[in-house]
Amino acid sequence: MQYLVSVITDSTDRATPEEDAAIDVFNARLQAEGHWVFAGGLGGPNTATVIDNRGADALFTDGPFVESKEFIIGFWIMEAPDLDVALKLAAEGSKACNRKIEVRPFLAP
Amino acid sequence: MIDVGEAITRAHHEEWARVVAALARRFGDLDIAEEATAEAFATAVERWPADGVPPNPGAWLTTTAHRKAIDRVRRENKRGDKHAEAQLLYDDDPPEPLGAIDDERLRLIFTCCHPALAMETRVALTLRMVGGLTVPEIARAFLVAESAMGQRITRAKTKIKAARIPYRVPSAEDLPARVSGVLAVLYLVFNEGYLATGSDTDPIRRDLTAEAIRLTRLIRALMPDDGEVTGLLALMLLIEARSTARVSPNGDLISLDEQYRGAWDAALIAEGHRLVRERLAAGAAPGRYQILAAINAVHTSARDIRDTDWSQIVALYDQLVRIDPSPIVALNRAIAVAEFDGPEVALAAVDRLEDKLSDYHIYHATRADLLRRLGYGQESRAAYDRAIDLASNTGEIAHLTRRRDQLG
Question: In A, which residues are within 8 Å of B170 by CB distance?
């Protein structure tokens, strides 16, 4: 079972060196314990482009699909047997990156 | 001759959660478990009056529900709907047996009270899956439209399945926190019954207090060594014991000092006191519910309000403040202080809570009462007015109005 674990923030400030170090330790643990699938940091909402190609021509719009005070600035994809394990890992991830976290399951195939 | 209606009611109380839990485990799907169990009870209502009550109603219901569930899975598979197969509730068998607490019903309770669900959802799901209340009954209890309550429960079942909320008793490490989550759900159900909200509602909803007590008894039977479970049951029993004396014939609430104590339920009080003694004998540091139960045990030990051991009650509140420094606890402590150190000391303590409790009707009702006792009639009246504005329980409003109108 895989979970998308999104990092929520309201500022585009980069992680501090301490936060980076804590994230590295956490990532190493995810890998050692077999929970790691993928992870990455994202550019801020102002770097986003929305594309709508449902009509005749692809339409490009500068900016995120929804303007909001808080946005996603990074994510993990984790492998976990159930939500209890995913929530525990996410709680540690929140501590490590010093930000709020959202956990969402991938749909079963 | 067994009364069939009575037998069905008893089976519903004793077997509903067991049947749902067994089916949830077997089919890995709360939705199938709930529907098949409801169908089995509907079949019992149809058949038992003609065929007679089976010798083992629980086994009959389990077998019948099982067949209904298999019918549904077959039906869905025939439609080519692989959904039922694809997304089964996750259940990893614990590596070691958990002994006394490894009851199917506990898995069900912990799943319904999972912290990833919103509190109101946990309450609704627990009443439906464990308590066996119907969706319309739960909707009525919480003054929500039936369709909204149905959706809330359906969404919860969808989340449990999709996010794979596990169907199991939490590990020993997580157990205390998760048990306290379950107790919070039951206490909320009890409190909604004990002080019902809504302008068309009876001040006390005995159906809800009774259901909360029944479910807490069940959890105590499953986890007899958990002090807080016992504490919560004792607390509910000692409050429930006074419920008849708590409402006047015209529906206003009667406060503790005015209640006719002869109308208290002696059997419930005896049971509550026995549970409190059991916890005292255990010698472990008490949690919140155990302390609240002890406070209520002191109240129910006094034959008259004047015989109340207020020093003991203040000492217990001091203990409670240390583990729960919330303003509500501080307010209740101040009410006890009024009896022990006098209304002036209490009023000073209450006034310090204004920032945090100025929207809470009990804060204003407490001030009103203290001001009245200190002879400040005008200030007291203003405080009663504010309390009446903020209160939502019909009996409380009637009680506060009566107190206000008694002011000279």
Answer: 84
Residues of chain B with CATH 1.10.10: 101-168
| CATH code assigned to B322-408 | 1.25.40.10
**Rounded to a whole number, what is the distance in angstroms from the first to the last CA of chain B?**
62
- Chain B residues touching chain A at CB-CB below 8 Å: 86-87, 90, 92, 114-116, 162-166, 170, 174
Q: What is the DSSP string of B67-124?
A: HHHHHHHHHHHHTT-THHHHSPPP-PPPSS--GGG--HHHHHHHHHT-TTS-HHHHHH
CATH fold for domain B4-86: Rna Polymerase Sigma Factor; Chain: A (1.10.1740)
Q: What residues of A are in contact with residue B158 (Cβ under 8 Å)?
A: none
Binary contact (B165, A105; C-beta < 8 A): no
Q: How would CATH label the architecture of B101-168? A: Orthogonal Bundle (1.10)
Q: Give the mean pLDDT per block of 10 residues along chain B (408 residues).
A: 83 91 91 95 95 94 95 81 48 42 80 94 93 88 89 95 91 87 92 74 79 92 92 97 88 86 95 97 94 96 91 96 93 93 95 93 95 95 95 88 89
